[in-house]
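Fill-in record for BZIP domain-containing protein.
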Amino acid sequence: MASSGGNTPSSGGSNLREETNQRKIKRMLSNRESARRSRLRKQKHLNDLTTQLSQLRNENDRVMYCINMITQHYMSLEAENLVLGAQVTELGHRLRSLNEIFTCLEQPIDDGAV
C-alpha cells in the first residue's frame, strides 16, 4: 500500500507531460486557425484589388473613349473654324470691292462741259 493511486512521482510527471502536450496541441491548432484566417484575409485583399483593377481599367477605357470623341469633335470644329475664317476673309475682300464700286458710282461724272 505504498502507492496512493495517482500521487506517485511517475504519475505526476505523466500528468505534466500530458498537460504540456495538450497546451502544445492547443497552440498548434490556434496557430493553424490564425494562419487560415490570415490566408483568407490575404485572398480577400487580392480579390478586392483584382476587382478594383478591373473597375479602373473599365473607367480608363471610358475616359479614353471620351477623350477620343472630344478630340475628334475638336478637330472637326477646328477645320470648320478654318473654313469660316477663310470665308470671312473672302467676304471682307468682296465687301471692300463692292464698296469701291459703289463709291465710284456715287461720284458725279465730270464730262468736261461747262
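KEY FINDING: Helices lie at 9-106.
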